[in-house]
Write a structure and sequence with these properties.
Number of strands: 4
Helix content: 25-40%
Strand content: 15-25%
Strand order of the largest sheet: 1-2-3-4
Low-confidence stretches: none
Structural class: alpha+beta
Distance between the termini: 39 Å
Number of domains: 2
């Protein structure tokens, strides 16, 4: 593999010391830090359900002439699988209620939806860039 197919990750020294101790003792036949870490990551990835891995963090939830509702799965907690974010259409801007912003990722996602672009065009409002 070429170096373009790799990236660098920085880990805490105490974690690396634990890995080094495992390597010194020959636990489970690991020969290198990279081998151990790659296997640990693969094991962790196997525990994440496929449907979660395939879900997009932002999903169009509902749409009206006044705005769009977006499900943001990155805001999930122990009580819900995400949070509904309201993005409102105004003549001079598109505003995210959650972030109180006109340029956050929720606004950018909303503006990427063809249905939103159609509504703004129909109203004759300029689509922010």
């Amino acid at each position: 593999m070429s170096t373009d197919e790799y990236t660098t990750v920085r880990l805490p020294k105490e974690l690396m010391e634990e890995i080094d101790n495992i390597l010194k003792r020959g636990v489970m036949g690991y020969k290198s830090r990279a081998e151990f870490i790659k296997e640990a990551i693969r094991e962790k990835l196997r525990t994440i359900p496929r449907e979660i891995l395939e879900q997009l963090p932002l999903e169009h939830f509902n749409l009206s002439e006044n705005g769009v509702r977006i499900l943001d799965r990155s805001l999930a907690n122990k009580h819900s699988r995400g949070r509904i974010i309201d993005v409102y259409f105004k003549p001079d801007k598109v505003l995210c209620e959650y972030c109180e912003s006109t340029s956050c990722r929720h606004v950018k996602f909303a503006l990427s939806l063809s249905e939103v672009q159609e509504i703004l065009n129909k109203k004759g409002w300029k689509i922010p860039e």
